[in-house]
Amino acid sequence: MRFGDILRLCRQNLWRRKSRTILTVLGVIVGCCSIVLMVSLGQGINEQMNALIKSMGDLSIVTVYADGGPDRAERGGSSTGSGAKLDDKALESFRAMNGVDGVTPMMDFPYTVTARAGAGGRYLHDYVQVMGVDMTQFDRMGYKLVGGEKPFRDDQVLAGETFAYGFLDTLRNGERRMGAGDGMTPPCVSGADAQCEGRRDEKPFFDPLVTRIRVTTGVNYQGDQYTMSMQGGGSAGAAGAGGAAGRSENITLDLQISGVTASDYGKGFATSDGLIMDVKAMKALAAKVNPSARKSDTYSQVLVKAADLGSVPEVESQIKALGYETSSYEDMRRSMDEQSRAVQLILGGIGAVALLVAAIGIANTMIMSVTERTREIGIMKALGCYVRDIRIMFLAEAGAIGFFGGLIGCALSGLVSLGINVAGMLYASGAPGAPGGGDGAQSGASLWTILRQAIVGGENVTRYSVIPWWLFLFAVLFSTLIGLLFGFGPANKAVKIPALDAIKNNE
């Protein structure tokens, strides 16, 4: 028989028992929907985990420590004995490694620093974190500016993204301004009508890019007198100002903020709420604050930026081979990927059970079809029909049930997945106290925008069910394969029936 004849007979035979065929296809649809939706929920969890890791900062950053890492003191203070030092020579060796884009030391200023701004020093920022980095490596390390430019003079520094919100007004009982990104704003503010108004994004007291700040520091400096008096430590603050015998004088200097950095905690907390200066300028300032301190040419930690995420393990192994300790988000990312794969396997296994039940239904349908058409099979053999054509005919029927069931199941799964995402986005954007509570990407968006985000995703968009294109293709092919596999037994049984016995069969 020609292949077209086989397909025609396949359609006629399936439509001969419409109710049985529809029920069998319905079982495949349910099984296909189950496995696709279960896997899509796992993909949604994976997407949310990746978004969480990305929100932590630059994933290609490797932090390098010497002498057993940052917790050596807590573990007893003993050195590893490797003799590896984080000095300028070590920095050059890191820069020469394969897969390394940038290297910078990261130093924290060892003394208490406060900052004042405005007329008469009206605005106060106490306990400012000051960090030193290699400004020549600023762009290579992936630091970003949200305003201004890099410093090019000794009296210029960079400010963290929310640094200006850390100031309080000393003339208004310590009043503060709050911004949506300063980490201090309540998620919901109730208005006069008791309805949630969302976050209030206030402007800071001053523009840091056009306002000079005055910082004060010293070896024995404990903080600004205003803060010390509020905490009930006014006398201690006065002693810390350098009046007592044996205490060093405090240093006050004026600085200009040339730029504002984007927050990235992986590259230092000062990128959010602190000051960043060139490491050479920081060393000079530390020497000025405490001239008697022993000068050190080593660093407590160094940041190494890999060329891409795939290069992180190789860069870490090269650094560890030199005797240093490293840490990065690679281990966390790998662990979360393993957990995500485990969840996807579990959810996929649950969906596969429903598809297995549908496969048993296909086998049952085909066995009944062979039994009912035994006489027809005998006549076909008597007329000279090839055995392979009979086998192909039954396999085509079983495969067609799996194919159309998978196709319809995928379409239905896509609609259900879209509904889950849209419902989740509408809830997150409109429900009081819900994640995103009116401040997410979906807040105030049109229905068309929400539908597009539910399908393709995007920045700050949470999708609970994600169906990649390959999952649709896999589901259709797998359903068809299941139909062929479970239809092979009945088809093989059909070709083994003797022609004479089949013709004599009266069933």
UniProtKB/TrEMBL annotation:
Domain ABC3 transporter permease C-terminal: 350-498
Coiled-coil portions: none
Stretches that traverse the bilayer: 21-41, 345-371, 392-420, 467-488
Membrane topology: Multi-pass membrane protein
InterPro entries, per the entry: ABC3_permease_C, MacB_PCD, Macrolide_Exporter_MacB
UniProt entry tagged with the keyword Cell membrane: yes
Superkingdom per UniProt: Bacteria
Keyword Transmembrane helix tagged: yes
UniProt KW keywords: Cell membrane, Membrane, Transmembrane, Transmembrane helix
Main location: membrane
Protein location: Cell membrane
PROSITE patterns on file: PROKAR_LIPOPROTEIN
Residue ranges annotated for the MacB-like periplasmic core domain, each copy included: 21-164
Assigned protein family: Belongs to the ABC-4 integral membrane protein family.
Record protein name field: ABC transporter permease YtrF
Organism: Bifidobacterium longum subsp. infantis
Lineage: Bacteria, Bacillati, Actinomycetota, Actinomycetes, Bifidobacteriales
Gene: ytrF_3
